[in-house]
Amino acid sequence: MLLHYLDLSWRSFKRTPLVSMLMVLAIAIGIGVTMTSLSVYHMMSADPIPEKSSQLYAVQLQTMDEGHTWWTDDNLPMQLTYQDAVNLQNAAVPEKKVAMMRTGFSVYLDSDKVKPFTGEARMTTPDFFNMFDVSFIYGSVWSEQQEQSAAPVVVISKELNDKLFAGENSIGKLVYLDDDSYQVVGVIADWPLNLKYYDLNNGAFNEPEDLFLPFSLVKTKKLTSWGNSNGWKHENINSYADRMQSEIVWIQFWAQLDNAEQKANYSNYLNSYIAEQKKRGRFTREKPEYSLRDVNQWMQYNNVVSEDNKILVGLSFMFLAVCLANILGLLLAKFLRRAPEVGVRRALGASKRQVFLQHLVEVAMLGCFGGLVGIVLAQLGLWSVRQSYDYYSSIATMDITMLLSAPVIAITTCIVAGLYPAWLVCKTNPAIYLKSQ
C-alpha cells in the first residue's frame, strides 16, 4: 500500500509541478537556514572528548583576599598563579596532571628553504598528550627527566612537520625557536579538535598549537604568556622572578580524576594545600574556596555557547515555521482542488483513513525532497560562515548527526503542516461531487 501511495504522490507532483516546486523550495529555504544555525550550535556545544570528559577537571583556586571580586559568577579566577601551578604539579596526587600556558616563537631552520615565521606554542608537562588523547606518528613525548632539567626539546604537529621537513620522520632534527635550537622528539598526528577546551581563555575555537615544549622552560627561558594574564592587587614587579612569585594568574591547570574516590582525595589535598598557604600569608579568606569542573561543566562555566547563539537557533526555527505556514496555504489549495477526485475515490470504497494516509505520504515526500535540497543550501550557508568568520572555520560544518537530522526535521514539520489539509480533504462528502458529475 505504501508503494501505491508513493506512486500517487509522484503523479500528483507531476500534475502540479509549479506548486510542488514552490513547496519544496519553501521547505528547503527553511531547512537551509535552520540547519546552518543548528549545525554551528551543535558543533559548539558538542562534547569535545566524550570518552573521558567526566574524568578531566579544570582546577581553580580562590587566591584573592576578602572583599575582592572577579568577573566570574562565583568570583573564582579561571587560571592559577605560577607558584600555585608548580606546587600542584609537584604534588603526589593525582597521578596525571598538567600545567600549561600559551606562548610563541619565531620558527626557522638552518636552511634557506623555509622562510622564518611565527609559530604558536604550548608550554606543558608530559601528561598533556595522554590526558587529552593526542597521538603520535613519529617519536613520543619528552621524558620526566627532560621536563625536570628543562631540556631544549620540542614536539611538533603534523602540519608543521610537513612544512619544515616535507612530512619525513624528523625525530632528532633541530628546529630554531627565537635564538635557540630545539631537538624534535615527537610529531603528533592531526588533532581533529573543534573546540580548544583545554584553554578557553585564549579563544575557544582557535586551532591547537603547532609546538609543544616542556613547561620547565618557562622559568629557564623567561617566557612571556601569549594568553590572558590578570591580577587583583597592586604588586611591585621589577623582575621575572617577581612575576613568578606574584599573585598574577596566567597558568592553566588540569587534573585527571578517574573516579569519585580520586576526586574526593584530591579535594582533601586542595583543602590541605590552601590551609598550608594560609599559614604563609596567602589565601586569607576564612572559608577555603576552590573548584573542580569537568570538561562539559568548564564549557558551560565559560559560556562557550552564548545566549546569542541560542537566540539565533530559536529565530531560525521561527523562520522555518513561517515557511511551513506558507506551505500550509499551498497544501490547502492543492488538496481542496482535488476534492472531486477524492469524492469519486470515496464513492468507490476508499476509506477516510486511506485518503488521509495517502495525503500524509505526499507531504512526507515533499519534506524529503525539501530536506535534501535544504542540506545543499545549509552547506552553502556554512561555507559563507567559514568565509566570513575565520573564528568559526572549525565548527561551521555538518557532521553525520546534522546530515541525518535535516530530512527528519523537514519530513516531520511537513507532516505537521499537512495534518489539517489532509484531514479536511478526507472529510469530503462523495454525494456532493457525484451529483455534480
UniProtKB/TrEMBL annotation:
ABC3 transporter permease C-terminal domain mapped to chain residues: 315-430
Topology term for the membrane: Multi-pass membrane protein
Compartments reported by the entry: Cell membrane
Major localization class: membrane
Molecular function, one GO term: transmembrane transporter activity
Segments crossing the lipid bilayer: 21-44, 311-336, 356-380, 400-426
Pfam families, sorted: FtsX (PF02687), MacB_PCD (PF12704)
UniProt keyword list: Cell membrane, Membrane, Transmembrane, Transmembrane helix
Domain MacB-like periplasmic core, chain residue ranges per copy: 20-219
Gene Ontology CC: plasma membrane
Listed InterPro entries: ABC3_permease_C, MacB_PCD, Macrolide_Exporter_MacB
Coiled-coil ranges from the UniProt annotation: none
UniProt xrefs under PANTHER family: ABC-TYPE MACROLIDE FAMILY EXPORT SYSTEM PERMEASE COMPONENT 2 (PTHR30572:SF18), MEMBRANE COMPONENT OF TRANSPORTER-RELATED (PTHR30572)
Stated name of the protein: FtsX-like permease family protein
Organism from which the protein derives: Pseudoalteromonas prydzensis
